[in-house]
Amino acid sequence: MQLSEQVIQENNHKILAAHKRKFETVAAEITELKQILNKLVAFQIAIPSWALGTGGTRFGRFSGAGEPGNLEEKIEDVGLLHALNKASGAISLHIPWDIPKDPTATKALAEKHGLKFDAVNSNTFQDQKDQKYSYKFGSLQHVDKKVRKQAIDHNIEVIKHGVELDSKALTVWLADGSCFPGQLNFRNAFERTLESLQEIYAALPSDWKVFVEYKAFEPNFYSMSVGDWGQSYLYATKLGPQAYTLVDLGHHLPNANIEQIVSLLMMENKLAGFHFNDSKYGDDDLTVGSINPYQLFLIFNELVEGMDAKGMNHANDLGWMIDASHNVKDPLEDLLQSVEAIMITYAQALLVDRKKLVEAQLVNDTVTSQEILQQAFRTDVRPLVAEARLRSGGALQPLALFRSEKVRENLIKERGKKTVATGL
Ligand code: LRH
Ligand code: MN
Description:
3-stranded parallel sheet, binds 6-deoxy-beta-L-fructofuranose, binds manganese (II) ion, 6-stranded parallel sheet, alpha/beta
């Protein structure tokens, strides 16, 4: 199921006048309008290949119909999202869930949909059926050198798959840790994990990066061997200049100040990028901006300030990826909402009057500082984001068009009612 440019343009035409009125109203208030629109047009978010079907929890999974049953259908679904919002121009694969059997054909299919391959993800948190050694007690941290070697070889295999698809980064998330006090010697576990990561680092092509993703808990519930930003930063600095710390928004303990973590990682040139999602309690992997949109704004506020302070290219210098799981929403509608939330928040952060903010900070005028931030956060930038989409050939209202064109119904007709197992 693909949505033609013609269908998108015809639909835009019906609502263009209303859009232009709203756009001109908000545009009238903005000084650097052209720069902001160019930044929005250039900003692309990677869609996770593992989030195109219904997820589930240990208590159950309510599968949906018309979901992708193979890598080709996953690429088509991301292509559909990108046709609608022109901001989903990349897909992030998870190996072995998405091994490209014919990389040349896979790359060609992605190019047909205007998609690139973002970071590839390794998986040493599940035992594959033909696997020799179990990861029950960890992978890169494991006390048994044979298990560590198996996990290292897997990561090197994943790099090879990524190279064939012109990906430029490997994301390593480790479930490694312990469930009980006394189960693990923390220092030895760190040293074994570092030694293992050093072997993976040595296999990186010179223009590649490795993203070390941290997580406070789950599936281990006493310690995680990459449990917070400090531990990930320690690995990344000990590994070398191609290693960075990946921030998954759901991987923090309650009330962590994620925007401060982001600011300091950028200061150190060690921020890899993000796995965007939202959460109220744990690693809930909910729709971006659905629970705590102000926190997301404060994070993007630090990102824009930090990237401009270092002259970074907003679109290309960091990894912008979603990592979500869908239990009750249509996966594609959920992803459309997540991309929209990220684009809205980025636009709001671009509206912050940085000069006035610095002036207020330098005189400890905390009231004015808050007023400046909330002026931007309370600006309805949706017409700006829609205008950027319009100028990129996308839909003014992606979600409404997804529904009015009965995309899910058509996918079910094409793929049948069969339900598909996702890796998670
Ligand atoms: C771990 C995680 C990691 C992925 C997995 C699907 O919670 O965030 O990024 O490998 O989800
Ligand atoms: Mn993640």
